[in-house]
Amino acid sequence: MAAFVDALAQTGCVEAACAHVGMAKSGLYEARRRNPLFAQAWEDALIDGALPRLADELLTVAFRGSVERYYRDGEMVGEKRFTDARLGLALLKRLDRKAAERAAQDRAARLRALAEERAAAHRAAMEENAAGIREAISAELDEVDDMPFRADAGSAAPQHPPHADRLADQLPAARRACARGPADPRRL
Question: Is residue 26 part of a domain?
Answer without folding.
Answer: yes
